[in-house]
Amino acid sequence: MNSRLLEILDRADQVVQETGPVRAEGRLSVGVDLGTAYTVMFVLDEEGTPLAGEYHFAQVVRDGVVVDFLGATDLVRSMKERLEARLGRELESAATSYPPGVSPGEVRAVKYVLESAGLSCSTLIDEPSAANTLLQVDQGVVVDVGGGTTGIAVIDQGEVVYTADEPTGGTHFSLVLAGARKISFDQAEALKTDPSRHRELFPLVRPVMEKIGSIISSHIAPFQVDRVYLVGGTCSFEGMAGVVQAATGVETLVPGNPLFVTPLGIALNDGVQTLALAERNN
């Protein structure tokens, strides 16, 4: 992991905890990640450094499909308004993403959420490809473990040559914990995201990790792969990389703060679009 990547991820972790005003000059890039578990929005400056951001647990999407359009719209609009208040500027456009393999209609639904919330959609990109915009993997596999699905992108010489998406993700961790501990899904979600409980809970969720490893193995089998990069909040669970590495036989890494990798990559794609538009207008 290069130092610039670590710097961006550290900065992202800082800005989501801040609530005060932010000085924002020049072109801004905005990314919205409508996940099964978390909706995340980041605003970046011209250099790609995070200026402001928010993330909220919200079950408005299931397995890449918008199941609560009004709820998703209201959430994105409220996040937009709070970030605008901090920045002292209107946010006009944003990029967003979708899991590989969802239907064109579901992809359009994500775009319509942004538009209904007052943001024009500058670009749509699949989630693992968005993650690689930040990671800049030249050779390897980027795996985005979302709430409901696991998205895979095989990268060869910096280009995405294969994508896939299958059910199984962080929601399945919570379902397993809820059943094993006889608690509610929300209580299980809170338990899952408490790092101090990970070692205790690891035996319970390990089968789900192994399932994810099996999914990755089946999709990368035709390719020569020497490294797997895991992103998504689920990958913060202690022991995840080791289980996936054992299942795939391929070195597996988790960047710091994996929850923010894909939304930051999405925002960088808005920056690419914004820059291209500015250059056309000059």
From TrEMBL:
Signal peptide: none annotated. It holds the Pfam family MreB_Mbl. It comes from the Bacteria. This is Ethanolamine utilization protein EutJ.
